Amino acid sequence: MNLPLDPAQLKFGIGQSVSRKEDPVLLRGEGRYSDDLSLPGQLHAAMVRSPYAHGVLNGIDVAEALALPGVVAIYTGKDLEAAGLGPMPASVAQKNRDGRPVHLPSQPILATRRVRFVGDPVAIVIAETPKQARDAVEAVVLDVEALPAVTEAQDAVAPGAPQLYDDVPGNQVVDFHYGDTEAVAAAFAGAAHVTRLSLRNSRIVVSPMEPRSAIASWEDGRYVLRMGSQGVFGMRAGIAKVMGVKPEQMRVLTGQVGGSFGMKASVYPEYPSLLFAARKLGRPVKWTDTRSESFLSDSHGRDHDMMAELALDADGKFRALRLTGFGNLGAYLSNATTIPSTANTVKNVIGVYRTPLVEVSTRCVFTNTTPVGAYRGAGRPEGNYYMERLVDQAAREMGIDRVELRRRNHITPDQIPYDAPSGMQYDSGNFPLLLDKALEAAEWDSFGQRRAEARARGKLRGIGIGQYLEVTAPASKEMGGIRFDADGGVTILTGTLDYGQGHASAFAQVLVDRLGVPFDRIRLEQGDSDLLIAGGGTGGSRSIMASGTAIAAASALVIEKGKPLAANLLEAAVEDIEFMAGRFTIAGTDRGIGIMDLAAQLRSETGASSALDVSHTDQYEESAFPNGCHVAEVEVDPETGETQVVRYTTVNDFGVLVNPMLVAGQAHGGIVQGIGQALMEATAYDESGQLLSGSYMDYGLPRAEHAPFFGFASQPSPARTNVLGAKGCGEAGCAGALPSVMNALADALSERGISHIDMPATPQRVWAALQSAQV
Questions:
Q1: How many other CB atoms are there within 10 angstroms of residue 247's CB atom?
Q2: What is the DSSP letter of 337?
């Protein structure tokens, strides 16, 4: 590890809590989000959306709308199809259990013959002002023959259910299976005890602070799209395919992004529609989603139903785990994914426990609802939730202390590397130690006193554990570019993308560590597809591992390029040049030159500093396994059913922490989102497919008052799967929060004989459960 000579730079190295570089700009209100941008002569777009969840689209009458003031054009799906655009991208990595290929129905950019959910886009209106565009939307007349709708996955596969696609019988996209059915069945048959729980992982409206927005234009013979995204390189490829052009004929630009949580990673129908209009009309076209439309048009998260079963021997040792259930995909695959309820559940469900056998069977199903996509964790929190609820329930049923049951089944440090039945190999970790540290920090042993005090106030108090392990995103290529700029700065180029995480500081800290470059001279470029040669975007808790590894590799290349250049300036042999702490020196002497001085001297001699620049693609090889233990305490008011999280403690193993402050902030955000899903975020449809929770008047998000002060501690075991030793932290808060909060609530309600309640445990649901328990 190279540390800069200047002591002032030490505070900017790996392991330091450095403030986010972008914060001064954002705090001054100088951020540039997609809706802040405008181009000369731009027009404005609004989408015409289906008010029906399911129906035959017989026609679209746009005559009245076209006659309104300011309306320039209205395009339908048939216009886009006639131009050769589409269909929308769709892919499924999983196979059917019987080996049959998965059939992928075609989705037009704008619906042409059938509408399949409320909010399904059917036309795009272009006008001189946003208001004129929205007014024209109201004047478009749709001729829709309404059909019966289905919103729940289990109902969608029932005999006689409405069929969304003629070529997808039974609405079933994938019949996924993983595991040895016979071996698992034998383990259950021979088990001393079997615990079963029907578990609902509820649907989430993603709701980032910044709605989706984009400006499309046709510039110098190619498409340009300025938009919020999670990675411009992959987005460019996806949109170019829909537009029927080569990626080089498409440029994607992303500035600052106000949150995403997985939702802005996909290609949406609005984007090719805007690009088509911009080229057709010869003027830029801008669109910004309204919040009410975002509830309908942005992909939702989660929505899985599982029967979870755990087989144990007489001593409480786990013998097998079996999940059987459904993944609700919504109406389309274009911005949906089958991965959370299938492969990612398999990878994450055993968590930190020795579990010899795992079987997961998931039926991924179309319904007349908003398409479902990735949401913070994308199967990782779900998998951990299933296991941790089973552990607590098994302990209750077998009369074994829940802490003791976990200890009996922990994967211990001497068993690592551990070959999990998921096919993953855990490379590091000390799971028993994290449990012990968390219990100590949470004052577990004195909980009885706090419960008694709450009882005296008429409250039910419970405590719950959520011990989790996540498998981060798989191997991928990532860019690590380093450019020494003419103004004396250094630019990092990489293909991940910051949508709130603070990459600029963390990545700069890696560069400070490797090259000794002054922190305040480092810039970050992630948002221009023209400047990238690779990039997997941000997702799956991969950024510091993928980009950090690529930056480290690129730094090594800079050093190798710099040695002969330094040797020439210092009049020494290349083999005598060493690099340490930001300086090239002649071995055994104090003669040398700093890397920034070398870059400046090269510029003065050649007019450029390209001799030190590196444009490098790195193959990030393996996932990592962040893990930890959360302990939540809740209080329930039995008169109202209101549940409040009153204490919260976490001890985490994120490997090497590049920036501990940012890691804690990521954990806090994930925890709050987990609390929201557990206790209040209720997405609801009526029987006709109308979204009942279509605004903040009807959909509850956690506020500051719902979040306790968090106890955060780190107990790292450095990862062995990447050069930085980091493990990723962006999604882990949810993975620990869902089970710890719901286990705590079940513990509180156990005083009234209630052992389980599903998410979201809203006051009404908790109150109803308490009332039923009194009957």
A1: 15
A2: -
Q: Which two tokens stand for residue 598?
A: 């070398």
Q: How far apart are CA 490 and CA 483, in angstroms?
A: 6
Mean model confidence pLDDT for the chain: 95
* CA torsion, ordered 418, 424, 425, 426, to nearest 10 deg: -70
How many angstroms separate the CA atoms of 473 and 555, rounded?
24
- How far, in Å, CA of 387 to CA of 26, rounded? 40
Do strands 222-227 and 250-253 pair parallel, antiparallel, or not at all (unpaired)?
A: parallel
Amino acid at the residue 517: V
d(CA 646, CA 636): 10
Nearest CA to 572 out of 594, 587, 590 is that of: 587
Q: How many CA atoms lie within 13 A of 682 on its CB side?
A: 15
Q: What is the pLDDT of residues 412-462, one digit of tens each?
A: 999 999 999 999 999 999 999 999 999 999 999 999 999 999 999 999 999
Q: What is the mean pLDDT of residues 36-56?
A: 98
What the block records as the tokens of 576 is 């005598």
pLDDT digits (tens, 9 = 90+) for 271-299: 999 999 999 999 999 999 999 999 999 99
**Cα(378)–Cα(540) distance, rounded to whole angstroms?**
8
Quick check: 10 pLDDT over 80? no
Structure token digits, residue 100: 């049959």
Length of the chain: 775
Q: Is the CB of residue 285 less than 8 Å from the CB of residue 42?
A: yes
Residue 7 dihedral angles phi and psi, to the nearest 5°: -55, -25
Structure tokens at 452: 């008694």
* Residue pLDDT, tens place only, 574-633: 999 999 999 999 999 999 999 999 999 988 877 665 789 999 998 877 899 999 999 999
How do strand 490-493 and strand 476-484 relate by DSSP bridges? antiparallel
Q: Residue 18: what pLDDT?
A: 94
Contact between residue 546 and residue 622 where contact means Cβ atoms under 8 Å apart: no
- Distant-in-sequence, close-in-space partners of 478: CB < 8 Å, separation ≥ 6: 494, 495, 496, 534, 535, 536, 546, 547, 549, 550, 617, 618, 620
User: The tokens of 475 are what?
Assistant: 């191997």
Kind and range of the H or E element at 691?
none
Question: Does residue 484 sit in helix, strand or coil?
Answer: strand
Q: How far is it, in rounded angstroms, from Cα 668 to Cα 425?
A: 28
Strands 476-484 and 614-620: antiparallel
